[in-house]
Structure formats: C-alpha cells, structure tokens
Predict the structure of DUF192 domain-containing protein.
Amino acid sequence: MPAVLLAAACTPVGAAEDPPTTSTVEETATKHPISGLEIIDVTIVSGEARHTFKTELADTGEAQTRGLMFRTELADDEAMIFPSYVPQARSFWMRNTPISLDIIFVGTDGTISNIAERTEPYSLDSLPSKGLASAVFEIRGGLSEELGIEPGDAVEYDLPENPPE
C-alpha cells in the first residue's frame, strides 16, 4: 500500500498506513475538543520519574496527516501520538504547524530512539527516526529537556483493541 504523509504538528513523511480493522471501536472514550480524537494516557518513564500526558490518538491516515497542524498551543500535560501498526522508519516535518514541538520517536522495544527537539515552526525539513519506529509522540517544544526525557526512556501506552477503519 502507498505510504501516507503524516502531519503531526509536523507532517510525517513515510508515515503509517491505516491500521487493519476487524470491528468498530466503541464511542465511549474521551474525545479532544478541537481534534475530536480519542484521548489516551501515555507515560514516559525517565529514571525514577514518570511523566503522564493526556494524548490525542492519531490512529488513522487522515488523523496522522492532519496531526497538530494549525494548532496554536499545546499544554505541558498534552500530547499527540502516531502509532505505526507495522514498525517502520518515520519522518515528520512542521508544515502548517505554528508551534515548536519535541518529536519523540519510539523504537520497536518501547523506548525512545531519538528526539527532534524544539522543532522550527512551519519548517519543511525532514525530521527522521533513527531506525524503525513503533510510534511517534509529540509534546511542547523544549519540554523533553525540562523534564529530563531522553533516548532510552520507556514509553508506556495502550492502544484500543480494535483499531479504527
């Protein structure tokens, strides 16, 4: 299948394909008031510290293409995650994204492989993962450094059992 461009506050290049579907997702989860995406908890374990974020789940090709484009703020406890249902190299850009982000690439072992910190708003420069990524996680630019989040830290989250169509 063709790759989909992701637009998480940046637009990923070579992003995940839409996940396979076996049934519909129940509409019982909390939805984000702007994006309408489901909110899940994502926790980064950094040494003894645990940082939990209310995270928008960009789990379809359309949601991944849109990402955080046109958003003018992201609170310190908010984030967006772009799961790869099949691990793959990922690359994002900041097209139509007016805020700086830290783009965190999650390796296949569930730990951070690399971070593109303090990205430049609106930049079309490609920001790639180092190796295969199982997900890409975005938070406010500079927050990784402030919280001591770095490569090797664990990223914990649960995806819905039945991915969307």
